[in-house]
User: Which sequence fits this backbone?
């Protein structure tokens, strides 16, 4: 009951039968050799085997024992280091990295499937390699030749792990308040001084080195975010000497006990600059955007793990006879036959399957953005990723928490005790709504930064793209409603000066409405593929019956707020 088990066939169905991933990849010259369903299916199956046999069994003990701090050093839970060493030596971190850096050059979507499985199996353990690909891409695009020569292969293969050091005690979401200082040194490097908090994996014993990417401010830098630069300092420098980076403590948290959340002090730690001075956020956003997609996948994976436990329990737990069950049935008292339990379980499956379609499409678009020979197609892919990533991060992490709580309800009182393992998912899932930009910030990013500045052009192009695939009249009508609301309500109303905070009032409901429309698109696509498993049809029915009505609710809230922002 406590160990999640991947089901590679479910991922393969959505990738190949629904999204036709192999056909999309065949159009990309750099990926054409990998557009082989047999190859990709085999990789996903092997990933599922590794995750199920090596990573999932460590989840319970990782939560109960947790990471331990002593005198500046962190010891990870039993089995974590051995599992990580097996992980990187088997080549799993390098799936989507370039071959010239020690990677395998496989499609990004394969890495996405792997990370969904990993987070479902053991969220705490997976926090360690979760930033690897983002750090790799950051250095690949912004690092000097010297930094790339020293660190790229180590990060691509996962031999060394990485952190993202942004937050300070006084500077959370507002990075313009960062105070960590970078003083130039005579050798062309910099001395970093300051304290960073909430640093996932800032200190541990999983890998032989840790590469810290740190936002800091040069002496002549202007205030605010434009004054920030990005620096790299490793736990051990090129001479094998310990850098002046100290872990002062790890946080005692609600969940994620297997992941050390560190307070790091940089005491004139010698560092190298990454990219140009004053453009640290530009370099860091490469890493942050990759992390946000992975956090969306965390939500999907955690929800799937909770659903697996609740579904298995509902097939075994016997209580009163289910309404309408035949008296001759020996299984009529299984709680899985009760409508209330079926509603909980089918609703979570509706979110899981739709979320996978949207997330896997986003991963495919990332490769399209990089490799497609047609500029217009690359632009469309970039548009999809820009607009859909904050929706994935926000909506599916929120559902991971609320859905895991609903799955706990299936267990009744047993769910509230540790024996069954479901309460850990509720605790672990909560933080995903906060880190990598809170869900409220994701909504502001979507509406205020990505929709309004271009007059809604990018959003309307995305909606038109979705409309080409829609067949269900409910989804088609909803698409037209949202297009009309943006064109004739949201855009003209937010240009008026009497309510400057209006976009911020609309942002959360706007994101949620778009999330539901994307789900409708996903289920429309799933409906075009044939599959015998009954739970797919049950989840589809659950979406239209219990999830979809929220779209009209959000649409109504948006219209009411636009008409009278102060009401």
Assistant:
């Amino acid at each position: 009951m406590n160990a999640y088990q991947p089901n590679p066939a479910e991922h393969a169905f959505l990738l190949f039968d629904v999204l036709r991933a192999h056909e999309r990849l065949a159009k990309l010259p750099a990926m054409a050799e990998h557009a082989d369903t047999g190859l990709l299916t085999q990789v996903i199956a092997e990933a599922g085997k590794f995750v199920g046999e090596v990573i999932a069994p460590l989840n319970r003990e990782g939560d109960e024992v947790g990471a331990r701090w002593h005198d500046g050093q962190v010891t990870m839970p039993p089995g974590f280091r051995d599992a990580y060493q097996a992980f990187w030596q088997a080549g799993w971190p390098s799936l989507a990295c370039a071959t010239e850096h020690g990677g395998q050059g496989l499609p990004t979507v394969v890495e996405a499937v792997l990370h969904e499985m990993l987070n479902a199996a053991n969220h705490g353990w997976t926090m360690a390699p979760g930033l690897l690909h983002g750090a790799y891409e950051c250095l690949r695009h912004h690092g000097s030749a010297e930094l790339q020569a020293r660190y790229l292969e180590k990060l691509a293969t996962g031999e060394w792990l990485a952190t993202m050091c942004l937050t300070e005690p006084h500077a959370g979401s507002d990075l313009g308040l960062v105070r960590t200082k970078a003083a130039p040194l005579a050798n062309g490097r910099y001395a970093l001084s300051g304290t960073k908090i909430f640093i996932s994996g800032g200190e541990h014993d999983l890998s032989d080195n840790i590469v810290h990417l740190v936002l800091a401010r040069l002496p002549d830098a202007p205030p605010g975010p434009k004054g920030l630069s990005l620096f790299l300092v490793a736990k051990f420098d090129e001479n094998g000497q310990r850098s002046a980076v100290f872990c002062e403590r790890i946080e005692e948290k609600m969940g994620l006990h297997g992941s050390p959340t560190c307070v790091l002090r940089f005491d004139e730690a010698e560092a190298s600059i990454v990219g140009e001075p004053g453009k640290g956020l530009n370099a860091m956003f490469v890493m942050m955007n990759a992390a946000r997609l992975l956090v969306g996948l965390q939500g999907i994976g955690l929800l799937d793990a909770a659903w697996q436990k609740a579904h298995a329990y509902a097939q075994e737990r016997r209580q009163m006879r289910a309404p309408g069950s035949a008296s001759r049935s020996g299984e009529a008292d299984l709680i899985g036959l009760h409508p209330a339990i079926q509603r909980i379980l089918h609703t979570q499956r509706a979110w899981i399957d739709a979320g996978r379609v949207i997330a896997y499409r986003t991963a495919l678009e990332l490769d399209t953005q990089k490799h497609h020979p047609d500029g217009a197609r690359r632009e469309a892919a970039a548009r999809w990723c820009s607009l859909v990533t904050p929706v994935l991060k926000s909506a599916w992490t929120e559902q991971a928490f609320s859905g895991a709580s609903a799955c706990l309800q299936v267990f009744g009182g047993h769910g509230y005790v540790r024996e069954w393992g479901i309460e850990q998912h509720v605790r672990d899932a909560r933080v995903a709504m906060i880190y990598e930009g809170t869900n409220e910030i994701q909504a502001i990013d979507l509406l205020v930064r990505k929709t309004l500045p271009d007059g809604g052009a990018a959003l309307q192009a995305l909606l038109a793209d979705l409309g080409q695939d829609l067949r269900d009249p409910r989804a088609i009508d909803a698409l037209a409603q949202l297009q009309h609301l943006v064109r004739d309500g949201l855009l003209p109303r937010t240009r008026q000066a009497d309510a400057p905070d209006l976009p911020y009032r609309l942002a959360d409901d706007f994101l949620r409405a778009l999330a539901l429309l994307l789900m409708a698109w996903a289920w429309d696509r799933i409906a075009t593929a044939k599959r015998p498993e009954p739970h797919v049809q049950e989840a589809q029915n659950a979406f239209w019956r219990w999830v979809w009505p929220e779209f009209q609710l959000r649409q109504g809230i948006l219209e009411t707020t636009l008409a009278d922002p102060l009401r």
Remarks:
- The radius of gyration is 24 Å.
- The chain has three domains: 8-152, 161-279, 284-563.
- The chain has a mean pLDDT of 94.
